[in-house]
Each structure stands twice: as C-alpha cells, then as structure tokens.
Amino acid sequence: MKKKDLLSVTDLSGAGIRSLISAAIRMKKDHARGRGGRPLRGKVLGLLFSKPSTRTRVSFQVGMAQLGGTAIVIPPSEIQLQRGETLEDTAGVLSRYLDGIVIRTFEQKELEAWARHSTIPVINGLSDFCHPCQILSDIMTIRESFGRLKGVKIAYVGDGNNVAHSWILAAGILGLDLTLAVPKGYEPLPEVLGEARSRFRGAGDPPRLCHDPDTATAGADVLYTDVWTSMGQEKERRGRLRAFRGFQINSRLLSLANPGAVVMHCLPAHRGEEITADVLDGPASLILDQAENRLHLQKALLVRHLSPKK
After folding, report:
1. What backbone phi and psi angles, to 5 degrees, belong to 248?
2. Where are the alpha helices (DSSP H) in the chain?
3. Which of 56, 166, 186, 304 pairs as cysteine with 135 (C-beta 3.0–4.6 A)?
4. Average pLDDT of the residues of the chain
C-alpha cells in the first residue's frame, strides 16, 4: 500500500477532510467517555523539530500515548545531519526505525525531500509555507461551534503567512466562505490564491483578498488572526508593527461581525498586538477549544496514516 504523507492540506480531498474531522469528533467524544481503543499499539512516531513548539509537540506525544503508541523527540542538533550526513541517508535509516515522522521546519522543500527519501509517512508539523495540522483542527473547531461549515463566513485578519496559506487552500478544497484582510506588501503568495480558486466548488465566491479589516469582518461569523511576526522574522518586527497598525482584532472590530461571532487564534498570541486581551480572553474566544482539538484531530490523522489496517 502506498504510504500517505501530509505535506499540505492539498494532499487531502474535500471528502477526506470531512471524514478526518468526523473521526476526530468521534474520538474526542470517546475520550471524554473514557473509551477508545489503542489502534497504534507498538507504533513509534518520530518528532523532528527545527522550530520551537508547544501545541504541536505535546499534542502529538499525548495523542500517540492515548492511541497505544510511542512518540520520541529527535533534536536536530543531536543527530548526524549536523555533522554532514545526508538527508537521504538519515531518512532511509529513520524509516527502518520509525512508523512515521512529524517534521517542523523552515522550508517546504525540505519536507518534500524527506517525503521523497522516506518509506514511512511524513507529516508537516509546520513549515514557512503552510501549517496543515493547525487549519484542519481549526476547521473541526468551527464545525463543532456552528454545527456546520456551509454558510459560515470566515474573516482572516493579519499576515499572509503559512497559516493564511493553509486557510486559503482549505477554503478552496471545501468551498468555504473566506475573506482575508492583509496589509499591502504582506499578501499571501499569488500562486496559493490561484490554486484555491482553481479548486473552489462552493456556492459563493472563492477566497477573497482585501486590505481593509472592516470590510473583511463585516457580517463575519469567525474572526481569525495570527502573530504579525512569525518565527525567523524577528529582525522585521519593528517594521511589521508599523505596517500592521489597524489590523488588530479588538472589541470595535468584533462589533462589526455577526451576533454570536467567535474569535480564533492559533497561538502563541501577543496580547496588545494582533489581538487585545479582552477579546482573546473574552466569551467569544475559542482559543482553548482550538488548542484541545489539535490533540483529537492529530489522533485521527495518526490513525489514518499509521494504522496497519488498509
């Protein structure tokens, strides 16, 4: 059976995403009732993270434990890649030890190289290009909150970064109603928008881009944001703070949304920058639900990719 990688949400069909979310919701309910099997007993997952992580690392480790398997952390600084061993050799060797590997790194092409040279499933734990595990669990959170995805208007306010890319691609695949408000000069890659538009089969319009947060959030059901300065962009911080002025999610912006609108942030958050504390910690916030759902969605993903059942 051909191995399954998850390098981007585009590795999944619309039906595949919906099935994954349904499985995650079932597993979440089973866990709350003290049920759930151990389908990954004897399986070992490797975590190779070049970037710091809280939610991704802990949720994959806990998820493997709850599914009966084991997760081991492989610090990049402690393996022979740092001393000149090729990625090809490392991937080949780890494929003989592990049943799957989650990689959190900078360049998407590095993930693609791992996938080419590994015989085990490779899962993207985050790259500078996209963050599929985050967006899949966020879509799960929206479905839980609204009971549906169809007709839910999503407004993304902030940087056209890896999280925005995954939102755009998922919206294209699922036909979601998504508007992005991004400062000029910080737009998502045009090829990502083009890919989403080519895949879009929804009843409305494909993902839309604007430069006005008020326009994006007017009548929205979901307000979503991320940090303005991502990992590896620290030298740009001062300029980004100037450029993103006016793109903060706050009570005024929330008041433009539909009654009952929710606020989402993938965390970590910088209170007072991309979002105010009163909104992030207020009754509309779903941040802890999002964080919890990383665990359940990734458990469903692990079963899909590592289970011995065909």
Report:
1. -80, 135
2. 14-32, 55-66, 87-97, 108-117, 132-146, 162-174, 190-199, 213-217, 237-243, 251-255, 277-280, 287-306
3. 166
4. 95
Q: In the structure encoding, which two tokens stand for residue 189, read together?
A: 């890659």
Q: What is the pTM of this model?
A: 0.96
- Domain residues of the chain, as ranges? 9-130+295-306, 135-290
Which residues form the catalytic set? 104, 131, 134, 226, 266, 294
pLDDT at 231 over 80: no
- The string over 262-273, giving b where at least 16 C-beta atoms fall within 10 Å of a residue's C-beta and e elsewhere, is bbbbbbebeeeb
DSSP state of 273: T
d(CA 104, CA 8): 13
Cα–Cα distance, 98 to 45 (Å, whole number): 6
Pick the CATH number of 9-130+295-306 from 3.60.20.10, 3.30.1360.120, 3.40.30.10, 3.40.50.1370: 3.40.50.1370
